């Protein structure tokens, strides 16, 4: 604190006024993933300020693309619904995993390998693992980025889903944003998925078949 600051504090104390002295770094909560003290919206404190960084704010369903700490592009996104789907002894949780990820692969003209739950949801019989009925073209848009564990950032044939929590765990982006993200990303690029707001404590809904 400089001399002017000390003088103001002395006068305030003499007048019985309580001053709120801001901390250099605000207290952060686990659910914010370090975003509370960051001056750049969409860029968590943990994210590097060099190179390309992709971030997804699940609280607001927004996607951001940064280069050297500067925002290049942003858009809406669709993220996991959080629902639980149960069929017999099998259960799937449609959740978008938070945390620090890395780009594991880039895919042009991705083909969706339709999983068992998709056939069950549609009321269709489950085909064999190698059945051509599992291969669906165009569902994931023109580009996809692999984050591992079956989670992709990809385009969509359902633009109305953007901005909502309706996916089965993957992150959907509109075509324009997906093209920019795909063009900028490389294997090893940092991806941060976080909540800028406190997550709700309500239990996920469960669909039992």
Mean pLDDT: 84
Coarse morphology: globular
Total E-strand runs: 16
Low-pLDDT residue intervals, each spanning 5 or more residues: 2-28
Order of helices and strands: HEEEEEEEEEHEEEEEHEE
How far apart the termini lie comes to: 64 Å
What's the CATH class label? Mainly Beta
CATH superfamily: L,D-transpeptidase catalytic domain-like
Q: What is the spatial order of strands in the main beta sheet?
A: 3-2-1-15-7
Compute the number of structural domains: 1
What is the C-alpha radius of gyration, as a whole number of Å? Answer: 22 Å
Strand content: 25-35%
Number of helical segments?
3
The name of the CATH architecture is: Beta Barrel
CATH topology: L,D-transpeptidase catalytic domain-like
Structural class: alpha/beta
The helix content, as a percent range, equals: 10-25%
Quick one: biggest sheet? 5 strands, mixed
């Amino acid at each position: 604190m400089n001399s002017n600051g000390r003088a103001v504090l002395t006068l305030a104390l003499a007048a019985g006024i309580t001053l709120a002295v801001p901390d250099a770094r605000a207290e952060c909560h686990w659910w914010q993933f370090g975003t509370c003290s960051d001056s750049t919206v969409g860029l968590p404190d943990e994210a590097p300020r060099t190179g390309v960084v992709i971030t997804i704010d699940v609280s607001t369903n927004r996607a951001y693309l940064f280069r050297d700490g500067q925002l290049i592009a942003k858009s809406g996104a669709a993220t996991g619904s959080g629902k639980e789907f149960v069929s017999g002894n099998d259960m799937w949780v449609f959740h978008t995993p938070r945390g620090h990820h890395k780009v594991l692969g880039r895919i042009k003209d991705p083909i969706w390998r339709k999983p068992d739950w998709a056939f069950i949801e549609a009321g269709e019989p489950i085909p064999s693992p190698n059945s051509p009925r599992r291969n669906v073209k165009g569902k994931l848009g023109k580009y996809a980025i692999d984050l591992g564990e079956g989670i992709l950032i990809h385009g969509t044939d359902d633009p109305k889903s953007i901005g909502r929590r309706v996916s089965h765990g993957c992150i959907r982006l509109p075509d324009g944003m997906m093209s920019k993200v795909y063009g900028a990303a490389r294997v090893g690029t940092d991806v941060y998925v976080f909540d800028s707001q406190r997550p709700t404590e309500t239990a996920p809904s469960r669909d039992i078949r």
